[in-house]
Amino acid sequence: HEYYSSTEEMEDLMIVDQTLMLNFARYIREEIKHIHKLNRVLKVLRGLSVDQPSDLSNPITAYQLVNRIKWKFNDIVRYTQQRPSDDFLEALSSTLKDLPEQKEVDRVALGLIRLQEIYRLEPQSIMGHGLAGTKQASRLHPDECFHVAKVAYENQKFQLACLWLQESYQLLQKGNAARVSISDVRLLFASSAFSLGDFDTAIDLTEQVVDEDPANEEALLQLLRYRLHRVTQPIFFRTIDLFTIPEPSNMSYVALCRSQRSRMTPHRQRALFCRYSTAGGNPRLMYAPVKEEDEWDHPRIVRYHDFLSEQEMDMIKMMARPELSRSEVVNLEKNAYVTENRVSKSAVLYDVIDPSASRISQRIADITSLDMGTAENLQVLNYGVGGHFGPHYDAGEGIRDERGDRIATVLIYLSDVEVGGATVFPEVGAALQPIKGSAVMWFNLLQNGEVDDLSLHSGCPVFKGNKWVANKWVRERGQEFRRRCSLNPWE
Ligand SMILES: O=C(O)CCC(=O)C(=O)O
Ligand SMILES: [Fe+2]
């Protein structure tokens, strides 16, 4: 079972944790009871012993000795074999299937690293100090810092590895007991520095390890390798600071995630409006017009406020919860696969089964005047630790089928997000804040049916909070006359 890709399911892991501790405590109580019992048995058996060799002159005593030694032996075997650990071991093996695998632990560390890169956080601040609204700083153990460093290293994030190693080192220096040693930290730091081209630091640190333990073969080998490199490739990048968080390559996306604010000139902003809309006189909206707000002009993105009620949202989450499974993405050949570029769990709610899903379709049809006959069923998403969806198009080669392509996306926010988790459009600079109960809509295709390059978008990593959204993808077939309709605000 995978937990980290859904914040909602992380709660299950807390229960696994509590059960494990409870069973262990119960086991200890049983062991103590058992020891008491063994002590009582010991006392009884001692009472049956012959004290003095002289007693053996009495034939009765001699008989007792011969007889009781067997009796005692049997008792000892019997009572020591009755161990409470059997029940406990059984409980443990049933917990085993609920435990996260090491692979998952590594991916959570990768989630932390992603958050650090995107939101520019030093280990100190991601552990709580710099995070507004965090009650309690969550400190990591030196072993844990080392593990995060190792995952960073394995993912070629060498500077982040250095930062986490520094953290681990400082904790070790303060005398925190740990499995990892200062030498382990130095060696991994040396490798990271070496990978960043800082051969001097790599050699320095490895020499320190060798000085302390001249028999450390791994260190000796590394040292040779580093020295050789310094001779053969004497160019090194002195300018690289080992302790800075590097800027990811996709800057506009990252900057939008960080600020969570759209970037638009005031002049253009003044042309954005809020209105009550009846979608050109739809009878179902005449008495309850929808609150419509322009989020962006080109491509046009609008938000519908109070699109769903609290009860509707609770219902959707309740229906989706047991169906959640790891989200996948499709490639051009329409093959679906799991990737760390999309960390969430999702469930499909079918219009024909679920009244709340069909009601949503009706609302979307009313508000947008688009035909829902070919639209996809509602996809409900719950994000996980550092959960995100990297920049992507909702439409394209891998998506298109007999219903056409995904002409429009309606994205419904089923929760607020405390920090992070905005939906951003890096090509244009739009950032949509998750607002619980609201829905945003945009077109993925141009009027000519081609994918609109500007519709590239991304769900930023969730830093803090539990992000729920639902997607409704509208397909091209059925919209042939609707998108051109003059009553349609999407022209
Ligand atoms: O969660 C978000 O903000 C965006 C989700 C999205 O783009 C998608 O699921 O296709
Ligand atoms: Fe999307």
From TrEMBL:
<dbReference type="Pfam" id="PF23558">
    <property type="entry name" value="TPR_P4H"/>
</dbReference>
<keyword id="KW-0479">Metal-binding</keyword>
<dbReference type="GO" id="GO:0004656">
    <property type="term" value="F:procollagen-proline 4-dioxygenase activity"/>
</dbReference>
<comment type="similarity">
    <text>Belongs to the P4HA family.</text>
</comment>
<dbReference type="InterPro" id="IPR045054">
    <property type="entry name" value="P4HA-like"/>
</dbReference>
<keyword id="KW-0223">Dioxygenase</keyword>
<dbReference type="GO" id="GO:0031418">
    <property type="term" value="F:L-ascorbic acid binding"/>
</dbReference>
<dbReference type="InterPro" id="IPR011990">
    <property type="entry name" value="TPR-like_helical_dom_sf"/>
</dbReference>
<comment type="function">
    <text>Catalyzes the post-translational formation of 4-hydroxyproline in -Xaa-Pro-Gly- sequences in collagens and other proteins.</text>
</comment>
<dbReference type="GO" id="GO:0005506">
    <property type="term" value="F:iron ion binding"/>
</dbReference>
<dbReference type="InterPro" id="IPR005123">
    <property type="entry name" value="Oxoglu/Fe-dep_dioxygenase_dom"/>
</dbReference>
<dbReference type="InterPro" id="IPR006620">
    <property type="entry name" value="Pro_4_hyd_alph"/>
</dbReference>
<keyword id="KW-0256">Endoplasmic reticulum</keyword>
<keyword id="KW-0732">Signal</keyword>
<keyword id="KW-0847">Vitamin C</keyword>
<keyword id="KW-0408">Iron</keyword>
<feature type="domain" description="Fe2OG dioxygenase">
    <location>
        <begin position="374"/>
        <end position="476"/>
    </location>
</feature>
<dbReference type="InterPro" id="IPR059068">
    <property type="entry name" value="TPR_P4H"/>
</dbReference>
<dbReference type="Pfam" id="PF13640">
    <property type="entry name" value="2OG-FeII_Oxy_3"/>
</dbReference>
<keyword id="KW-0560">Oxidoreductase</keyword>
<dbReference type="InterPro" id="IPR013547">
    <property type="entry name" value="P4H_N"/>
</dbReference>
<dbReference type="Pfam" id="PF08336">
    <property type="entry name" value="P4Ha_N"/>
</dbReference>
<keyword id="KW-0802">TPR repeat</keyword>
<keyword id="KW-0325">Glycoprotein</keyword>
<dbReference type="GO" id="GO:0005788">
    <property type="term" value="C:endoplasmic reticulum lumen"/>
</dbReference>
<protein>
    <recommendedName>
        <fullName>procollagen-proline 4-dioxygenase</fullName>
        <ecNumber>1.14.11.2</ecNumber>
    </recommendedName>
</protein>
<dbReference type="InterPro" id="IPR044862">
    <property type="entry name" value="Pro_4_hyd_alph_FE2OG_OXY"/>
</dbReference>
